[in-house]
Design a protein that fits this description.
The structure is a single chain. The protein has 395 residues and is mostly helical. Helix content is 77%, strand content 0%. The chain contains 17 helices and no strands. The longest helix is centred in the middle third of the chain and has 31 residues. The protein is globular and about 60 Å long.
Length: 395
């Protein structure tokens, strides 16, 4: 699929374009409110665990359904317009819960949030490639992930504030976060809509079969599996870290064990921030390799760690090492197929469905041999990423 090569914006022009795009990355982080919000919905509606767990599961389901079609949509209406569509869907998802918190309303809201995020992640990353040279793409995507992480961090803080300040949140309570993020989303729509961005125009729109055929290219397939491993390790760590604490630290309560997940997110955010600079100074291959080695060392540590401090160190190392894997793999995939970036983006985001595959396998392994079995599954993902390091190409 041929495209027209366009000069990248420079100087002030690039800054004026990249700032609205970074607002969109912030909006991308809204999806992470689902974890904390589902706990409050469960409490408010007296739901069972299986009913409450349906909310986070919806997010990964929509990635599987909408990623590839979004790549096709970008070929028809352009990347910027597709991002705008995702923001509108996200805005709807944030407005719906303001009018109630019934189980049906929340299912609709979280479904729309998942759909909007799937469309956004598929279209926003390749939109950045219109503004940034290939050699700087990975570092820019990493900085975007850092901006996204800020929204992820703020979500539980805003929810807790809303829950404790019913009067100042117009009786919305914890649901005030939806109103606050809806306002930010509206600002993002206005800012991006007013920003002119030149895009490559494809000769023709691809179909689903043509998109999936790209997995027949060895390097694209390697990148797809790499994304699956990254997300599997990410979701797997969040799920397993508290369980490792409960298994190996005597007398610890679940509330205290859950802080292991907080450590993960702190180190992941710090890694994204640092990676945004280091990827401009180091080759992606060297940086990626060091990140994977950090995770490998963490896995070795978690196999035998029995103290709270050592487990925190291991979990933090995974968060730091895994923080830039997505950006490098995604940039490698886009740069490998510059004429099919929209389709490749859809395939890579579909790989986020790996967030359901790894935890399932880890659950069976942990039931068989304890949490060391779950760590072993994640270690297999790290081993694949180590192999992938050898295949990374220069921009």
């Amino acid at each position: 699929m041929a495209t027209v090569s366009l000069d990248k914006p420079t100087g002030r022009s690039m800054i004026m374009q990249i700032v609205p795009v970074m607002f969109c990355f912030f909006a991308m982080g809204f999806v992470d409110l689902v974890g904390t919000a589902s706990n409050f919905v469960q409490r408010d509606l007296n739901l069972t665990d299986s009913q409450a767990n349906l909310f986070p599961s919806l997010v990964f389901f929509w990635f599987l359904i909408f990623s590839v079609p979004t790549g096709m949509l970008m070929n028809r209406i352009g990347r910027k317009n597709t991002v705008l569509v995702s923001l509108v869907v996200t805005l709807l998802s944030l407005v719906v819960p303001i009018f109630g918190n019934s189980y049906g309303i929340m299912l609709v809201a979280f479904s729309l949030l998942g759909i909007g995020n799937a469309i956004m992640q598929t279209s926003l990353n390749p939109l950045v490639s219109n503004l940034i040279s290939p050699s700087k793409l990975a570092s820019t995507l990493t900085f975007g992930q850092f901006v996204k992480a800020i929204a992820s961090f703020l979500a539980p803080i805003i929810i807790a504030w809303g829950a404790a300040n019913t009067i100042s949140t117009f009786d919305l309570g914890w649901r005030a976060i939806f109103a606050i993020y809806a306002i930010v989303c509206l600002i993002s729509i206005s800012a991006l809509g007013a920003t002119p961005i030149k895009e490559e125009k494809p000769d023709k729109a691809s179909g689903v079969v043509e998109c999936l055929k790209l997995l027949g290219r060895p390097f694209v397939l390697l990148c797809f599996i790499g994304i699956m491993c990254h997300v599997g390790i990410d979701v797997g760590t969040n799920t397993t870290a508290p369980k490792i604490m409960l298994e190996r630290v005597a007398g610890i309560a679940l509330e205290d064990a859950a802080y292991a997940t907080v450590i993960y997110f702190i180190c992941r955010t710090a890694g994204c921030f640092l990676g945004g600079f280091l990827l401009r100074l180091m080759s992606p291959k060297v940086f990626f390799g060091l990140s994977v080695l950090i995770m490998l060392a963490a896995m070795v540590l978690l196999f035998s760690a029995s103290s709270m401090s050592l487990i925190y160190v291991g979990v933090g190392m995974i968060g730091f090492g895994n923080s830039n894997i997505f950006s490098v793999v995604f940039a490698q995939a886009l740069n490998h197929a510059p004429k099919e970036q929209n389709e490749v983006s859809g395939l890579m985001i579909m790989g986020l469905f790996g967030g359901t595959v790894f935890p399932l396998a880890m659950g069976f392994a942990s039931e068989a041999v304890g949490q060391a079995g779950a760590v072993a599954i994640m270690t297999a993902g790290v081993a694949y990423l180590l192999f992938y390091t050898l295949r990374i190409k220069k921009a």
